[in-house]
Design a protein that fits this description.
The complex is a heterodimer of chains A (453) and B (570).
Chain A: H1 23-28, H2 33-38, H3 43-53, H4 65-70, E1 81-86, H5 96-102, H6 104-117, E2 122-127, H7 132-147, E3 163-168, H8 178-185, E4 210-214, H9 215-227, H10 229-233, E5 236-237, E6 240-241, E7 243-250, E8 256-261, H11 267-274, E9 284-288, E10 297-298, E11 302-309, E12 312-319, H12 327-332, E13 341-346, H13 351-365, H14 371-391, H15 396-405, H16 415-440
Helix pairs in contact in A: 3-6, 5-6, 6-9, 13-14, 13-16, 14-15, 14-16, 15-16
Chain B: E1 9-14, E2 17-22, H1 27-33, E3 57-63, E4 83-85, E5 90-91, E6 102-104, H2 108-123, H3 139-147, E7 165-166, E8 171-173, H4 183-191, E9 197-200, E10 207-210, H5 222-227, E11 233-235, E12 248-253, E13 262-268, E14 271-277, E15 309-310, E16 313-314, H6 317-330, E17 335-339, H7 345-358, E18 361-364, H8 384-389, H9 402-409, E19 415-419, H10 430-435, E20 437-442, E21 454-457, E22 466-469, E23 474-478, H11 491-501, H12 511-521, E24 538-539, H13 565-569
Parallel strand pairs in B: 1-6, 17-18, 17-19, 19-20, 20-21
Antiparallel strand pairs in B: 1-2, 3-4, 3-5, 3-6, 7-8, 8-11, 9-10, 12-13, 13-14, 15-16, 15-21, 22-23, 23-24
Helix pairs in contact in B: 2-3, 6-11, 7-11
Classes of the chains: A alpha/beta (453), B alpha+beta (570).
């Protein structure tokens, strides 16, 4: 079955010839019309549309956006803050940066609609430290939108005022975790907070109710405000509405970003039809479907079980190529849709070395607050880098798995899962390769080798 | 007395034991009440909760109810309400009790979680217990024994971090031993209000340090050493001095101010090595000031008085008492007694008896400094209120001994007995001192001793037992930590002998026996006995003294009495 056609609603203008990121171009293309119309509606109506749309957060967890907004404590009398999570740092993900670089006003419009719907008077865009260019573009775009009265005091004569501030992070993965982000925004070390009691919807930024949404999610809100929640829900499949942007990287002919209605495309269609299949003379070996923390899938394995279609339970028997790329299907087979970062590896890749690279990343990014993640991530890195540097032992695979098993579910934030799932899944799927690695890899670390950080 | 509001009680089930605890109690504290130990590092009852060590992971569940009808779901196997156990372990420190909460601390899941955390904590720990000062009182040691696996699977290189960093004048840091629990950081920020500590770097390379240009030098810095669960923060003074298991612990009271912080004196073979705070939630929580921890150095100070002297030459105790008796007889009616706010209640009682027998005027030396709003109050005498309660004084002491000076100048006073006080420092001038015959009871040499008729060496607070009444009018006892120095005599014996020399009745000097006399003579202490005084002290009725202008400002657990005007208007 050939792949369905792309449907670009968020990436409509990305890489469009002649499309620029200034407000003039955006308004020429119908920009800010949705905001003008939205501020004439009741905020509750807008929230209701988002709830009806079934929109799920695009940052990685896929939490329903309407539910998140519904949890906000609106009776406390404290101000409500909205934070745009633009700390896109999951390896393999590069969608938000395109929006910020090429279509920043789409984000600003979506943000303002969300602020209006939730009676937010102050919003922050927390942008990753490594994206100074994006920060400059956003600053400029906000100034333009402010001059045009789309942001700032008395927006479009409605007496509603809201400011947006851009805050640059200092470059840490953990700042993408919402409570870590809030700590960082408050000027502290980005140590995620314990929940309970510090749920952002109740005790968030400055101990006030706070909404933290991903860049892409807020762009979807704009689309929902424009077309209505019911109309949006028709895109994609039930439970996985709207479109999904896939950031495909690695060993395919045409890596890049692709936007499809959620759940309508399978992994095989995406990699073979859309991305042009493996490089010449190679075969696919493995794929990580949702950013580097998602559990890896091995080509050739089968996923069997029962799933709900409509009201019935039907059997499924999928190969990797048959898995629909939506939150629920990927969750069902034991991995996750995550942030949409699809990382493809072909038969030239040694899985021990790939894992060593991932482990080096996570041990470097652990905030160091909770014991299991702090010590476990570095231990796993030390084991895997020792292995690739020629001192592997046959028992290392079992040790790695055992260390990884001691981390998830025992930490404050989801980083515990993020750092242990790669190790758990790599060893579960490629255990043979890990066990034999001491035989296949005998060469010691070359003197000029760059150390894994 | 104002009745405290009865807290709402919540019934929880911990390892099958039901207990009702006040709402807001966390699971660690609730478990403590049923003798279930939930191991932890970062949690401290007096600090905010961060939940980062993950040692207190335990299994929790709530009774199952039907979501539609809210009716309890019963378990047919047990006939009891079914428990919905949370599939992941939860932290005990960050979870407050809720009605019906069930907790299991002995399941395989909990055991596995604890073993995992212990293993992680130890992989980068230097395991240098044989040379570590914390050994013997180290949570890491204790819990590795109690909850660890007992073997190591770690063959990699351990992380290297700074050793022996001087964080301040009194605290030394070994970063490799640090388990990053952040107790010291939270203490500095929340209690000492001196935010100087923080972590730099990330992950397992996180390193505790002072902020650039800052030092951990506030007067509470050594509390970070006390609460450090491992050997990372050590006292520069105590470091490498003594193994803690050789030390004897004696309960004591901090004598540096009227706060009366509860302390423990650690000694071995008559030598004191350190002083640490003792928890009293009504007085000092679990803290004490650094300045109170060095007071033991006075015990073996080189200027300690060790010989009875008459007119500057060595003599014997009985001869000195006789000399005093003669002075009393020769100057009957012209004797004054200077008591001390540093004396114990018992000594003040005897001082009062002495003054009564001599028909002498009584005086007290005041020591007023600046309060630090925490655990050092403005009144640097530990026991002025004891002098009020025993009737030694009826008004608060003036700044200097002006009255006594005037009496000397007028020739009304010819003999002065001073109980530990330096009269020169307290405001008597050389001319006045030259006019009187001085009987000195004291621990350390003072400038005025040279001219004294009689000098009798007495004991420091570490060499005797007694009680102090702190600023809250809480009477608290302390016990003898080390044997008296040779040549010095217990103040009680000296005072009782002087009472005899003045013609007064015989008074027992053993502290328990003395208390019977005190209880009979002082109505406010009628029901108090030394032996039965609770560890946390006993509040005395302060109303007879409510009109006195005490100098203390607000400190931890103490507010100065409010003006009564508002109450009168109500």
């Amino acid at each position: 079955m050939p792949a369905p056609a792309q449907r670009r609603i968020i990436f409509q203008h990305i890489d469009e010839p002649g499309y620029t990121n200034d407000i003039g171009c955006y308004v020429r293309n119908g920009g800010y019309e949705v905001l003008k119309q939205a501020v004439t509606r009741k905020p509750e109506e807008l929230i209701d549309e988002v709830k009806k749309s079934g929109l799920r957060g695009r940052g990685g967890a896929g939490f329903p956006c309407g539910v998140k907004w519904g949890l906000v404590d609106r009776k406390s009398g404290k101000p409500i803050y909205l934070i745009v999570n633009a700390d896109e740092s999951e390896p393999g993900t590069f969608k938000d940066r395109y929006i910020m670089h090429q279509d920043p006003h789409q984000l600003i419009e979506g943000t303002m609609i969300s602020c209006f719907a939730n009676n937010v008077r102050q919003a922050y865009i927390y942008i990753r430290g490594e994206m100074p260019h994006g920060a400059r573009i956003l600053e400029k775009a906000i100034a333009e939108a402010r001059a045009a009265n789309f942001v700032g005091p008395n927006i479009l004569g409605t007496n509603y005022s809201c400011e947006i501030f851009v805050h640059r992070g200092a470059g840490a993965y953990i700042c993408g975790e919402e409570t870590g982000l809030i700590e960082s925004l408050e000027g502290k070390r980005a140590n995620p907070r314990i929940k309970p009691p510090y749920f952002p919807a109740v005790l968030g930024l400055y101990q006030c109710p706070t909404i933290v949404n991903n860049v892409e999610t807020l762009c979807h809100v704009k689309y929902i405000a424009q077309h209505g929640g019911a109309e949006y829900a028709k895109i994609g499949t039930p439970g996985n509405t709207g479109t999904r942007i896939f950031c495909v990287s690695g060993h395919v002919q045409r890596p890049g970003y692709y936007e499809f209605p959620a759940g309508t495309i399978t992994m095989g269609q995406l990699l073979n039809d859309v991305c042009g299949g493996p490089l010449p003379g190679r075969t696919f070996k493995a794929v990580i479907p949702g950013g580097s923390s998602a559990k890896i899938m091995r080509f050739g394995e089968r996923y069997k079980g029962k799933r709900k279609v409509g009201t019935e339970m039907v059997d499924y028997d999928w190969g990797v190529e048959d898995v629909p790329m939506d939150f629920d299907s990927l969750g069902m087979i034991g991995t996750m849709g995550g942030s949409g970062g699809v990382i493809v590896m072909d038969d030239t890749v040694n899985m021990v070395e790939a894992l060593a690279n991932i482990n080096a990343f996570y041990s470097h990014e652990s905030c160091g607050q909770c014991t299991p993640c702090r010590e476990g991530s570095l231990w796993m890195k030390k084991i895997s880098s020792r292995m690739v540097h020629g001192q592997a032992r046959p028992e290392d695979a079992a040790l790695l798995k055992s260390v990884a098993d001691q981390i998830p579910g025992r930490t404050i934030c989801a980083f515990g899962e993020a750092c242990s799932w790669p190790t758990q899944s790599f060893i579960a799927k490629f255990g043979d390769e890990f066990k034999q690695y001491s035989e296949t890899k005998k060469t010691a670390k070359p003197a000029d080798a760059v150390a894994l950080i | 007395m104002i009745a405290t509001a009865k807290p709402d009680l919540v019934t929880v089930n911990i390892d099958g034991k039901e207990i009702a605890v006040p709402k807001g109690t966390n699971v660690i504290e609730a478990a403590r009440l049923v003798n279930v130990d939930v191991p932890h590092y970062c949690y401290h009852p007096k600090l905010t909760i961060v939940g980062n060590c993950r040692m207190c992971l335990i299994e929790m569940g709530m009774p199952a109810v039907d979501p539609a009808t809210k009716a309890p779901i019963m378990d047919p196997a047990t006939g009891k309400q079914k428990i919905n156990w949370i599939p992941r372990p939860q932290i005990g420190c960050g979870t407050n009790v809720s009605p019906g909460l069930h907790v299991r601390t002995t399941t395989p899941m909990v055991k596995d979680a604890r073993e995992g955390v212990m293993e992680f904590l130890l992989i980068n720990h230097p395991l240098d217990c044989p040379i570590c000062d914390q050994a013997g009182e180290c949570k890491l040691q204790e819990q590795a024994t109690g909850y660890g696996r007992g073997y190591s699977r770690f063959i990699e290189d351990k992380n290297v971090k700074p050793k022996r960093t001087q964080l301040g004048p009194r605290v030394t840091l070994d970063d490799e031993r640090c388990i990053l629990c952040s107790r010291c950081i939270r203490f500095s920020k929340e209690i000492a209000k001196d935010d100087v500590l923080g972590f730099v770097d990330r992950g397992s390379y996180s390193t505790l340090t002072c902020f650039p240009g800052k030092k951990l030098e506030n007067n509470y810095s050594l509390n970070t050493v006390d609460i450090c669960p491992v050997g990372a923060l050590t006292s520069t003074d105590f470091r490498f001095k003594m193994r803690v298991w050789f030390l004897k612990q004696t309960n004591a009271i901090d004598t540096e101010s009227s706060v009366g912080a509860n302390t423990v004196v650690w000694s071995r073979e008559g030598t004191i090595y350190r002083i640490t705070p003792r928890r009293n939630d009504e007085v000092n929580d679990t803290w004490m000031a650094d300045s109170g921890r060095v007071l033991f150095k006075a015990v073996q100070a080189p200027d300690r008085l060790s010989a009875v002297k008459i007119n500057g030459t060595d003599s014997a105790f009985d001869i000195a008492i006789n000399a005093a008796a003669e002075l009393f007889k020769a100057n009957a009616g012209a004797v004054a007694v200077v008591g001390s706010g540093r004396s114990t209640v018992e000594e003040q009682f005897l001082t009062k008896q002495l003054a009564t027998a001599l028909k002498a005027s009584t005086h007290l030396v005041s020591r007023v400094g600046e309060g630090d709003k925490l655990l050092v109050s403005a009144d640097r005498n530990p026991n002025v209120r004891g002098a009020l309660v025993t009737g030694l004084i009826s008004t608060l002491p003036g700044v200097k001994l002006v009255d006594l000076g005037a009496q000397i100048d007028a020739g009304k006073v010819k003999v002065v007995v001073t109980v530990g006080e330096d009269l020169a420092a307290a405001g008597l001038n050389a001319g006045q001192l030259a006019k009187i015959s001085l009987i000195v009871l004291g621990t350390h040499a003072k400038s005025m001793d040279g001219g004294a008729k009689v000098v009798i060496p007495t004991l420091t607070a570490f060499e005797k037992s007694g009680t102090f009444v702190n600023q809250q009018f809480r009477i608290q006892k302390f016990l003898k930590a080390v044997p008296p120095m040779a040549g010095a005599t217990d103040d009680l014996i000296v005072l009782a002998k002087l009472v005899g020399a003045a013609g007064g009745a015989t008074i027992p000097t053993e502290v328990n026996a003395l208390w019977k006399t005190i209880a009979a003579a002082v109505p406010a202490l009628a029901t108090t006995t030394f032996a039965n005084l609770p560890e946390t002290g006993q509040l005395l009725d302060a109303t007879p003294f409510s009109a006195l202008p005490f100098v203390e400002g607000e400190t931890l657990h103490y507010k100065p009495a409010q003006p009564v005007v508002a109450a009168a208007n109500a």
